[in-house]
Amino acid sequence: IILLGSSFLKMAALRVTVQRLLQGRSAVSPLLAAPTLSRACHHGNHFEYINVSKAGEKQNVGVIELNRPKALNALCDGLMKEVRTALDTFEADKEIGCIVLTGAGEKAFAAGADIKEMSGRQFQEVYGGNFLSHWTRLADTTKPVIAAVNGYALGGGCEIAMMCDIIYAGEKARFGQPEIALGTIPGAGGTQRLTRAVGKSLAMEMALTGTPITAQDALQAGLVSKVFPPDQLVSEAIKTAEKIASHSKLVVAMAKEAVNASQEMTLREGLHFEKRVFHATFATNDRKEGMAAFVEKRKADFTDS
After folding, report:
1. Marked catalytic residue, from 56, 155, 157, 159
2. Which residue in 179, 242, 257, 269 is the catalytic one?
3. How many C-beta atoms lie closer than 10 Å to residue 281's C-beta?
4. Among 92, 219, 247, 284, which is least packed, fewest CB within 10 Å?
5. Number of H helices, E strands in the chain
6. pTM across the whole model
């Protein structure tokens, strides 16, 4: 009964995702050139705390740069609201196939939440207002998000990196959950996503001591996928984003949903869900085109349909 109920809810969510992504997608070709950046137009939205641009030869990669370097890109409420707006804009942009999130400068990706802003809050306010709930917009994004982490990713900075689908790190990156030293605990995934990523023992050590780990430790533990020299980090993240964006956006979203489902299902439930999503790809034009292109030994021309 639990299996059927969970699978039914997941399949209902999948149908909504497929219906939304089937509407008005344009063709996308694989990208071969080095990434290029340009400022993105956001319908009159002028950001104070972030920089937003498009990258890649086809301008199909969205880039969000946290831009409070003097505050080590601390995650104030205004910054997170702007990130949400930028994500909404990129989600609605039919040309964008992947998003890169990074921080200005090499000192910090984000050194955590803005403690000065947070320190005066009371229980009634944070509980009644479900404080930090809007941060999960990153985790709910349909399009893949790559975190390019240079420098410190502490507290909320580590947590928003873990909300992304892929994490690349610069060689000097540091990941940590130091909330214990402030008399509190992580509140945006630091006890949950971190444990799933690195295991209970390391997550417990990080949460109870507040001691950060290095990029190499994070790579060994499975928290990050790759480590690069700091000056190559963002360009490498964009290259990967370009490759993702060259595929069918519809099928990419389905693959992302299936992988994410594995974190919340039993193995039996996950295998059942995966099979149903796999079957669903046979209702798409892009599955037909991809297989036909393989048989005919040519490049696939996906239409996101």
Report:
1. 159
2. 179
3. 17
4. 92
5. 13, 11
6. 0.84
Give 48-94 pLDDT, tens digit per residue.
999 999 999 999 999 999 999 999 999 999 999 999 999 999 999 99
Q: Is 159 marked active-site? A: yes
Question: Can 156 be counted among the known catalytic residues?
Answer: yes
* Best CA proximity match to 102, nearest among 78, 117, 86, 118: 86
Among candidate residues 74, 86, 111, 113, the one labeled active-site is: 113
C-alpha torsion angle, residues 126, 127, 129, 134 (rounded to 10):
80
Catalytic pick among 62, 156, 157, 290: 156
Q: What is the Cα–Cα distance from 41 to 52, expressed in whole angstroms?
A: 8
Question: Is 103 tagged catalytic?
Answer: no
pLDDT digits (tens, 9 = 90+) for 157-204: 999 999 999 999 999 999 999 999 999 999 999 999 999 999 999 999
